[in-house]
Task: structure prediction
Amino acid sequence: MGSLLRGEEMSLCQLFLQSEAAYFCVAELGELGLVQFRDLNPDVYLFQRKFISEVMRCQEMERKINILEKEIKRDEIPICDNSDVPEAPPPREMIDLETTLAKLDNELKQVNFNMDALKKTFSELCEFRHILEKTHAFFLEMQGTGLGEDWTQLAGDDAINLSIHAHVKLNFVTGVIRRDRLHSFERMLWRVCMGNVFLRQAFIDEPIEDPISGDHDFKSVFIIFFQGEQLMTRVKKICEGFRASLYPCPETAIARKEMITNLTSRVDELKIVLKQTTEHRYRVLAAAAKHLNTWKVKVRKIKAIYLSLNMFNLDLTRKCLIAECWCPNNDLERVHIALRRGKDRSGSSVPSILNCIETKEIPPTFHRNNKFTQGFQNLVDSYGVASYREINPAIFTIITFPFLFAVMFGDAGHGLLMTLFGLWMVMKENFIQSKKSTNEIFLTFFGGRYLILLMGLFSIYTGFIYNDIFSKSFNIFGSSWVSSHPPDKGLYPEVMMLEPGKEYSGSPYWFGMDPVWQVAENKILFLNSYKMKLSVLLGVGQMLFGIILSLYNHRYFNNQLNIYCEFLPQIIFTISIFGYLNILILAKWIFYDSSGSSCAPSVLIILINMFLYKYEDTPCSLAPMYWGQQFIQTVLLIIALSCIPWMLCVKPYFLKKANDERKQMTSRPTNNNNIIIENEVGIPMEILNDEVPKEQEKVTVNSVDNHENHEEFDLGEIIIHQVIHTIESCLGSISHTASYLRLWALSLAHAQLSEVLWNMVLRIGLTTFNGFAGGLLMFFIFAFWACLTVAVLLLMEGLSAFLHALRLHWIEFQSKFYAGTGYSFQPFSFEVILKQEYEELN
Result:
């Protein structure tokens, strides 16, 4: 709990690593994940660092692995997912891995090149065979009685003229074109050649694979007849522009038949060669898929190690690498063990040295979290990372956040559904994590599974307190309201008044609200008053708790001036006004019952009159609650108002006083190297000197010479800062108390929306029809009501209550003690690096 409450104590350490052992030591530290290295070469370009060549080699191996992975996924080959994560390999294994990947890459390139060439040849041979078959059929038909059904003509007159002038020598061109370009191709030929060409085309039934893109396109065979060399040049240019493939076609039938026979045999041979090449490629990729994840992890670890080594300084005289890192004090022994293990792996006889060094830099913040507390820590870190050794609100948020959420979401039925969903994610967390889902919305819910579980459990509790279960109540222990005047005959009237003095038994309902309030017409008036006062009680209590936590921060950092000039006036101001308001609320609940309800005072009016100092004769409902109320309230008001100048003026005065005395002491000679200076009022200077701009540092005066190192004192800046702080403290306490009324508003809205959904949807199905028709209608109405309940009341209303509870913690609670100006501890960890890269890829 200590680590989660204030964070780990951190030390800046200096590492001296021998060159031959540095790689293995960093590898062991990466497996441990407990040190954060500092870049000791911030002004050196990346390409000028010592191990940049190794980093580039790792990047090249990553490129080859990505190519292999892409090819494997394209062929839908399963990749072996090894559960055991391999350790960082030694440097000599990097050479073997590099050789293996280079061999696979070259082999895959050669296989792909050969396959592309074979596919291109196969595609060309198939197109050529279709051209010969279609043109051969065309010439046979032209020698017969007419055109066959397999061919269509561009213009019937051209076909007649072709048969009439058969003795004219015509040239022709044959080729293949994509079917979607055929229409534009015909129009272009007709316009450019001015109708002096004759085109015939026929569809190819099966699609032909494009060797470049891999797509399967439907194509058509065409033959173009024309006369003259000039038209031939135009036709070929048009075919080239439309990316049509031209093939030579023999003029004689015998030559065409022989060529078709040869092409058929060549196509069959190519099919066999393509099949063998595809099988060989599959075997290569399948063998690589077995080790792909292992290679990927090893390369990433090697790259991370060399990137870390590039952050070190090289000491040529000692032949060692010098590094600086942040490390938790409690883990220094584990770091020593990791360094010894790295030295043993390298075979070096010189041990690595780890020294803790003094620094004025603020260390990073490190909280040890588990899978339960990590979700709550993420909520706090979203607002700001805690300053070093500052109290962490996450440990209190574990209880207060789901409770405040449940106050707004108080329905036992809805809380039960939320609890079941959270419990399912908790019970199946190992199974869900193994699936490695990429759905961001689900991953967000899964990351806060324990938070959702607690919110559901607390909602069940507050739902029983409100006696609200799907907008209905349970009468478990028997209502305390009983009608004392039963009717002479028949049923009770539909509307009747229950007087507390007569119909109330005097003993309250055993747990939660009496169920009779669910059917009362004044239910909203009663619950409004109850929930509004409850919101004020909870809000003021949480704010006072936040102010008390600020005391622990001031005491830990030895900021005693903040205790006297900030904590004391803040808590006195809050208790004098809002603490007194809470006491009045509790007193009214305790001492006023049904017998004196007509003269029960209004707490809000009493508070307003306290500020207006209005105490003349008032009606019975505004009479004083106790003897001496005017005197007590006057004293409290004077105390609260006196806290404003206290916060505003005292702190700048003492800071100015301390600065003047510091200047006087610097001009006096002294031989004492370790003194404590006191001012005229007897306050030690160490109390005042801690108010330099960085309030989180423990500052003491060790010598008079150290006064010269202090930053220049600016009284105007301090006064402005104190004015802002005073305004925030005084006005903020008022606005923050009012802000907690959202607990009442959201709770009332959720209850009313649930009741409206019940009356407007489910009640219709229960009262509209009877018998089979009513049961069938109820089936669909219940499904509609359940969908609306989940979508509106659980998701939308739950998200709204979640955001409001988050705001209450960030602004109203944490602003009292939490600065959130630190930076998180980011250790060099292989586990974190692999996880981040996996998330980026997905």
